[in-house]
Design goal:
Elements lengths: L4 H32 L4 H28 L8 H24 L4 H28 L6 H26 L6 H21 L2 H36 L1 H9 L7 H11 L3 H22 L13 H32 L10 H24 L1 H19 L7 H26 L7 H29 L15 H18 L19
Helix pairs in contact: 1-2, 1-3, 1-4, 1-5, 1-6, 1-11, 2-4, 2-15, 3-4, 3-6, 4-15, 5-6, 5-12, 5-14, 7-8, 11-15, 11-16, 12-13, 12-14, 13-14, 13-16
Amino acid sequence: MKFNWKRTLYCSLAFGWISLFWGSYDAIMQSIDYGVFGLDSVLHGVIIAADNILGLFLLPLFGRLSDKTNTPFGSRKPFIVVGTIIAAVGFMGICVFASLGKDYFVPFIICLLVTLAAMAAYRSPALALVPDVNPDRFRSIANAVSNVVSVILTVVAMLYFYVFMVFDGYYAVGAAFSATTIVMLIFFCLTVHENKFKADMLNESALAAEQDRLDAEVKRLNSEIQDTYGLDVEERIMSSKNHALDVEAFTRDTLLHLPSIDAVLGQRRPRIKQNQQSETKETPKGKHKVSVRNRASFTRFCILAVVFCFYMTYNALTSNFVTYAQHILGFAQNEAIIPLILAQAAAMIAFPVASMLAGKIGRRNTMLIGFAIMIAAFSGSIAFSTPHPALYILFMLLGVSFGLVMVNIYPFFLETSKDTRIGEDTGIFSMAMTVAMVITPILSGALISVTSGWFGGGENDGFRILFPYSIFFLVLAFILTLVIKNNRRSPVTKKEEVLDFD
């Protein structure tokens, strides 16, 4: 079975412009909240958390609704199209009212809530679309493709911030975002035929499953022939030029020499009886204890807890780093985004590596490596108080580690899911992520405010707590990942490790 990169790439576009939105939103909201409306770090955290509070209710709801929806355009596509249009118009409204000044706070908040509700309404359907059109064996690499698209669009958003923030107001940033999103949406509508893509995937999966079954049956028959007659018979069969065509002769010859059924059963009965007696001795009658770590519910809980801890770190960084870079590292406002751009670029390079590594050592182990690198990079970054080339290297390592985790964490959770519940379970996954993103802006903002006098550097020195805060949750994520028993099925079989992109 071949991985269809074109189909995956087209479906990933929706995931891409979601990232374009959040890249633009996280960057300019720090400037708007502090610079235009004069809010403190706690109120800024509340506003940043508003989208995630809405998401707590809307993500699982619309994920489930998209599972139940069946239209000629597909089950996910209608939600994506309508939600994207509302969000693009709403984001332009946010930028307009922020540019007009602090007297327009109320219409600014109205546009903000409408935009965030629209984003939450189509986020789960957009995330579920890619696994919908890919079987489990290819979901890691499909997620890698989605994340590459996501990173490219996130970097575009950061570049918009870097270029257009030199102009007065936020009109240019809003117009750039809205125009880019609408153009991508039009291309998406023309290229993504959801129902056809799903039907093609199911047909391909059925053919691949049948081929796997035939290969397994051939392997089993070869093994039985070898066990019964020895290697010499197998060598004679394989050396015959016409053995594959001369089925009748081969079958007749085999039947003449096969042992009788009674003989076979007579050989196997004592062994079966012995195994049954052994099992009876080992396990008391009526009792079958299953280790807690082997239970699917425990695995799902641990993965969701890892998601929570990871996004406690990730969202705290994205919602505070621009201000951190200004006050702690001494960057200019538009240049404060540079370390994050480098991190995103490194992550994009790491995505295909993360997918291949997961095929070799498993998704869990790949995530453990990612968390370990992340902890080391954050720990090293604490020491810097000025821009330095070593800081850029550490942020590139941070990007690599983000890539190792992000590519695998979502398909790792979907290993515990059923194909008929991908939308609903995507909503559950997104809800765990969203709970973290509700809590972390407020909690990190409160800690920044409380610790502002601890480091002796003035009112804004409390931002130094950002990296220790991130390390704490990364250590928790590492421990939780370690607890998960590494007995999940491999993302790809050995035969499928070499992918033919067609």
